[in-house]
């Protein structure tokens, strides 16, 4: 396991060390907590794909299992992973020969990371959140280019978007609204991002009111990691990349991976949220009708789609995941 850094990130949490490395020719943020086991866990985020949000979850997984735990950004979803002279020396990328911001390219990005950095482990566990669950499925498909997929022993798909993305409530309503307002919102984010002190104050206040504590920086609080996660994404180009990727999700995420689920049902656990507008009740029922008796799954009434933002929801997810890995 050799993560060669191209530029260090100064923020280091108590257990999780974040570094900038190159994956798929792109600057990429990777969080790591080393363990003593031959098993590792890779947490793949949703969209937006900042790894900082997942710090409390990753730390709890490592402390409970002893496994090495990794989480990884989506390229182009944080300021540190945009293609700029300060982030990369790749002249081809700097000349605008940048791969499109698609979910398919994010899959290839994760495959390269796994094959390059995780192939020395004997067992790999994938945990995908939202579209990260779809990425897990694509990595594990028989036709996948991942050379290390035989090492993947389990995939936990949490509040997943793995089928019927476009006809979901949010696919019909939220995504079109994001597209309509994208340039306005992107310009607003750019203005806020330009004034660093103003950016810090606004995001601090958001975290203060959300978590109802002045001690946003406490090691045990979600607020610190939420602050860093939001700070990492306040940029107009990041906003455009979020929406561009979501548009391709609407095209690519159509139906369940029939052969994958049929041939390896024991490798999966799926945790649904009852009132998830990215995965409506009828989509859950569609899964249950086809694979409900074969694949381990649960539906939580109190869980929200963006569970990483809520300490109580994170505990619900942890309970389910730890019972299965």
What does this structure look like?
There is one protein chain. This protein has 325 residues and is an alpha/beta fold. The chain has a domain at 7-164 and 255-322: Alpha/Beta hydrolase fold, catalytic domain (Rossmann fold). The chain is built from 13 helices and 9 strands. The chain has helices spanning 55-65, 91-94, 103-118, 131-140, 169-172, 174-180, 182-194, 196-211, 222-231, 236-252, 258-263, 281-291, 311-322, and strands spanning 7-12, 17-23, 26-33, 39-44, 68-72, 123-129, 152-158, 268-273, 296-300. β2 and β3 form a beta hairpin. It starts with 6 loop residues before the first strand and ends with a helix. Residues 4-14 have low confidence and may be disordered.
Q: How are the elements arranged and paired?
A:
Layout: E1 7-12, E2 17-23, E3 26-33, E4 39-44, H1 55-65, E5 68-72, H2 91-94, H3 103-118, E6 123-129, H4 131-140, E7 152-158, H5 169-172, H6 174-180, H7 182-194, H8 196-211, H9 222-231, H10 236-252, H11 258-263, E8 268-273, H12 281-291, E9 296-300, H13 311-322
Parallel strand pairs: 4-5, 4-6, 6-7, 7-8, 8-9
Antiparallel strand pairs: 1-2, 2-3, 3-5
Helix pairs in contact: 1-13, 3-4, 7-10, 8-9
Q: Rg to the nearest angstrom?
A: 19 Å
How many E-type strands? 9
Helix content: 40-55%
SSE order, one letter for each helix or strand: EEEEHEHHEHEHHHHHHHEHEH
Q: Classify the fold: give the CATH topology of one domain.
A: Rossmann fold
* End-to-end gap: 22 Å
Strand content: 15-25%
CATH architecture of one domain: 3-Layer(aba) Sandwich
Count of alpha and pi helical runs = 13
- Kindly name the structural category: alpha/beta
Main beta sheet strand tally, sense and closure: 9 strands, mixed
Question: Order of strands side by side in the largest beta sheet?
Answer: 1-2-3-5-4-6-7-8-9
Query: Mean pLDDT, as a whole number?
Result: 88
- Based on CA inertia axes, which overall geometry fits? globular
């Amino acid at each position: 396991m050799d993560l060669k850094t191209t530029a260090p990130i100064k923020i280091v949490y108590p257990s999780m060390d974040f570094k900038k490395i190159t994956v798929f020719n792109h600057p990429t943020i990777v969080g790591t907590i080393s363990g003593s086991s031959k098993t590792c866990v890779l947490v793949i985020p949703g969209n937006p794909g900042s790894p900082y949000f997942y710090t409390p979850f990753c730390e709890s997984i490592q402390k409970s299992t002893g496994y090495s735990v990794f989480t990884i950004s989506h390229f182009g979803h944080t300021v540190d992973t945009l293609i700029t002279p300060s982030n990369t020396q790749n002249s081809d990328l700097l000349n605008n020969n940048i791969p499109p911001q698609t979910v398919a390219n994010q899959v290839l990005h994760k495959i390269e990371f796994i094959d390059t950095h995780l192939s020395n482990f004997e067992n790999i566990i994938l945990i995908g959140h939202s579209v990260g669950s779809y990425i897990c499925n694509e990595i594990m498909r028989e036709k996948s280019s991942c050379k290390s997929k035989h090492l993947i022993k389990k995939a936990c798909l949490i509040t997943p978007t793995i089928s019927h993305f476009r006809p979901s409530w949010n696919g019909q309503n939220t995504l079109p609204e994001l597209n309509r307002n994208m340039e306005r919102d992107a310009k607003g984010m750019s203005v806020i991002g330009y004034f660093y002190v103003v950016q810090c104050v606004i995001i601090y206040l958001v975290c203060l009111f959300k978590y109802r504590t002045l001690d946003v920086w406490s090691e045990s609080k979600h607020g610190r990691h939420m602050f860093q996660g939001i700070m990492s994404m306040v940029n107009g180009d990041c906003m455009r990349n979020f929406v561009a990727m979501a548009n391709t999700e609407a095209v690519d995420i159509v139906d369940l991976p029939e052969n994958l689920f049929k041939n390896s049902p024991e490798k999966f656990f799926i945790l649904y949220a009852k009132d998830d507008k990215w995965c409506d009740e009828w989509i859950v029922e569609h899964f249950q009708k086809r694979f409900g008796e074969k694949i381990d799954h649960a539906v939580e009434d109190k869980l929200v789609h963006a569970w990483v933002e809520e300490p109580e929801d994170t505990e619900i997810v942890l309970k389910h995941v730890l019972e299965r890995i």
